From TrEMBL:
<dbReference type="Pfam" id="PF00107">
    <property type="entry name" value="ADH_zinc_N"/>
</dbReference>
<keyword id="KW-0479">Metal-binding</keyword>
<keyword id="KW-0862">Zinc</keyword>
<dbReference type="GO" id="GO:0005737">
    <property type="term" value="C:cytoplasm"/>
</dbReference>
<dbReference type="InterPro" id="IPR013149">
    <property type="entry name" value="ADH-like_C"/>
</dbReference>
<dbReference type="GO" id="GO:0004022">
    <property type="term" value="F:alcohol dehydrogenase (NAD+) activity"/>
</dbReference>
<dbReference type="GO" id="GO:0046872">
    <property type="term" value="F:metal ion binding"/>
</dbReference>
<keyword id="KW-0560">Oxidoreductase</keyword>
<protein>
    <submittedName>
        <fullName>Alcohol dehydrogenase</fullName>
    </submittedName>
</protein>
<dbReference type="InterPro" id="IPR036291">
    <property type="entry name" value="NAD(P)-bd_dom_sf"/>
</dbReference>
<feature type="domain" description="Alcohol dehydrogenase-like C-terminal">
    <location>
        <begin position="66"/>
        <end position="188"/>
    </location>
</feature>
Amino acid sequence: MPAPREQVKGWEYVVVDTRSAVKLPQTENIVFLASLCYAGVTAFNAIKECQVAPGKWVAVIAARGVEQISIQYTKAIGLNVIAVNINEEQLNAANMAGADYLLGPSTSTYFDSVQETVKDDIDVAVNLAASKQEYDDMPPIIKWGGILMVVGVPSEPLTIDPLDIIFEEYVIKTACSGAAKTLEECLRFQYREKHQTICRVCQARRFPFIAGIEENGKAKSAYVLGSRE
C-alpha cells in the first residue's frame, strides 16, 4: 500500500464495528489527532476520573509522554500539579507542560519536599507509569482520604496495606485507556479548550528506536509515526 515517502504493508480498506469508531473533526493536523487516540485519551481519563475541584493538588508520577499530556489536562481544568520523576530531562519537559513544581533525583525524600511545597499532603497522586517502586512511593505523600489513581500496570503485583484501605487513609481509583465514547469526550474537550498536546512526529522507519526508548523509560514525549519529522 503506497504512502507518502513510505511503503506500508496492508490493505486499502478496513472493516470496523461502528461502536468502536469515532468521527474525527476536520483538521489538517491529523498527526495531532493521532496523539489523542491512545496517549491523549489515557491521560484525559486519568485526570477526569479523579473528580476533584479546581485548586486541589495533584502529583503526576513520572514525566514521560503520557504524563506530560496529563499535566496539560490537569492545568487546563484548574488543578495544581507537582511532577515527580527521577530523570532531569523529563522533568524539564514536565516544566514546559505546565507543572507548578518539580521533584527530581536531587530531592532527598518526596514526603518532605511535598510537605514543604504545598504545606500539606497532596489530594491526588496519579501514576501512569509501569513501575511498582513508583506505586510504593505514592501513599506517604497523599493526604488522609486522598486519591491514588491507578493507571500504569507494573510487571510485579502491587503491595497495598489492607488497613490503609479499611480506614480510608486513601481511596483507590482507576481509569482505562478509554473506549470510543471517552475518546469523543477527549476530542470535544480538546477543541473547546483549543488545547495542543505535546507530541513528536517520527518516521515509521524509526519505530524500533522509539520502542526501545519507551521500554527503557527514556522517552521525553509522546511519539507519533508519520511521513515527516
